[in-house]
Write a structure and sequence with these properties.
TIM Barrel, globular, 9-stranded parallel sheet, alpha/beta
């Protein structure tokens, strides 16, 4: 049985010696919809209600590097997140929010460099030094090829954007977490807990290797790596999953890659409760699911947490449901007593055994991926995707055969219909965004914009770091779609071959 304390390598019991005894985890509620102005109002509301970190949800066109006036964006503008295309949009999104005082997480991947560049320019316009701003960009493109699908460029070119971001931030935005290596979407796509650990850490190894190939210093960028996991309903398994992942990463970073800085060994992670576990049937029951999942995340030692709103199987959260989701965390932090010990379940024979079991299962999967040549090769071969699909099939089959109970779905059903109010997205929002964008383009000096975009094209043909070039393009009033479009023309778009 592990007798080491929290804060000691390999950090099975937590990365800090006192964990939440001195400060609770960051309550980082994910939000964004419609226009920048509407999302800003939600952020202001959440901050007034006690949230301690912002988390931005972008709409699908933004995630794919498309402007609202692109034909492919039609019908999707502002639907599943906020629409951002220009520096003015980003300034409106963070209006009256001092970026020196809050940390911000942005769930963005293929155009992660571009959205961080816009955020940095907003800080610059507020008079805030880049060295002061803190937060996280997801920037995890490999899991997009595996489980989520919002990729743009082929893997090799995408990895360049990631390593260029690592290098720029190491020198200019040192407090920024330059990647959030995500198991969340892998789990939501149907993986098991062990697979979530293994596939996430396999991707992490691929990012480290890519950065080392660019001659980046491991102990300069590794302390800014962060992770992102889902938390589902099995409280004890989820707790053990986090403990196993932490121990495994410590060994990988120290033993396999030779990191010397103890901060490089620490698996720091954000948790989101399981969106795929929420049900449209009897949606109020989701309040209970989310509370138990949040408890497991805290038992497991998360650094920040998003609790889903109970109505998310029906639509985006309303202001009321978002507040209740935040209150779930606040009750856990300030009333439940679980913060009194760094690892409350540590020493339990069952938890320790389950931690060991999950670690061994995940190590076996990691070995399979290494034998295929690593994560990128395993993705290209379709191995990881197929493993997730098979696990998801088995899970769904268990539900349909009633060997796995989902309350309200295959047992304890109710004939009553829910009267839960639904968040309504402004139906005129897309037209308003189109008008905003047209006015932005009409007011700019097109020659200056074109020159900046040409500089980006030339830089992309060289080995120059693209981050400052992208910042200059946005200063010259280029749009997100134009910046991403330059690289689309050069690099092409990824299309799976299997």
């Amino acid at each position: 049985m592990n007798t080491l304390k929290a804060g000691q390598y390999p950090f099975t019991r937590g990365i800090h010696s006192d964990m939440y005894k001195s400060r609770a985890w960051t309550m980082r509620q994910y939000a964004g919809f419609g226009s920048a102005e509407e999302s800003n109002a939600r952020y202001q509301y959440l901050l007034s209600q006690g949230t301690t970190g912002l988390s931005v949800a972008f709409d699908l066109p933004t995630q794919l590097g498309l402007d609202p006036d692109d034909a492919l964006a039609r019908g999707e503008v502002g639907r599943v997140g906020v629409s951002i295309a220009t520096l003015e949009d980003m300034q409106r999104l963070f209006k009256d929010i001092p970026l020196s005082e809050v940390t911000t997480s942005m769930t963005i991947n293929a155009p992660a460099m571009m959205l961080l560049a816009l955020y940095a320019l907003v800080a610059e316009s507020q008079g805030v030094s880049l060295a002061q701003i803190g937060g996280t960009i997801q920037n995890d493109i490999l899991k997009e090829y595996i489980a989520r699908g919002t990729y743009i460029y082929p893997p090799r070119q995408s990895m360049r954007l990631i390593t260029d971001t690592f290098a720029f931030c190491a020198n200019h935005i040192p407090k920024w977490n330059t990647i959030s290596i995500s198991g969340y979407h892998i789990r939501e796509a149907g993986s098991t807990a062990a697979q979530e650990i293994a596939f996430t850490l396999a991707n992490a190894k691929a990012y480290v290797r890519a950065a080392l190939e660019q001659d980046l210093s491991l102990d300069e960028f590794a302390p800014r790596l962060s992770f992102f996991f889902a938390c589902h309903n099995n409280i004890l398994e989820e707790t053990a999953k986090f403990r196993a992942a932490r121990r495994m990463w410590a060994d990988i970073a120290k033993t396999e890659f030779g990191a010397q800085n103890p901060k490089s060994w620490m698996l720091r992670f954000h948790t989101q409760t399981g969106g795929s576990t929420l049900t449209a049937q009897q949606p109020e029951v989701n309040i209970i699911r989310t509370a138990y999942q949040a408890l497991a995340a805290v038992f497991g030692g998360t650094q920040s947490l998003h609790t889903n709103a109970f109505d998310e199987a029906l639509g985006l959260p309303t202001e009321s449901s978002a507040k209740l989701a935040l209150r779930t965390q606040q009750v856990l932090a300030f009333e439940s007593g679980v913060t009194a010990e760094p690892d409350p379940l540590g020493g339990s024979y069952y938890i320790e055994n389950l931690t060991d079991t999950l670690e061994q299962e995940a190590l076996h999967i990691l070995e399979q991926i290494e034998n295929l040549g690593g994560s990128v090769a395993a993705i290209e071969a379709g191995f990881i995707q197929n493993e997730i699909e098979e696990a998801a099939y088995r899970f769904q089959k268990d539900i349909e055969q009633n060997t796995r109970i989902v309350v309200g779905v295959n047992k304890f059903q109710s004939l009553e219909t829910s009267s839960v109010p639904i968040q309504i997205i402004n139906p005129d929002g897309e037209n308003q965004r189109l008008a905003q964008l047209a006015a932005y383009k009409a007011a700019r000096d097109q020659t200056t914009t074109n020159t900046a975009l040409e500089q980006l094209r030339l830089a992309a043909l060289s080995t120059e770091n693209l981050f400052p070039i992208v910042m200059n393009a946005f200063r010259a009033k280029a749009t997100l779609g134009e910046v991403c479009g330059v690289l689309r023309k050069l690099w092409g778009e990824y299309r799976p071959e299997f």
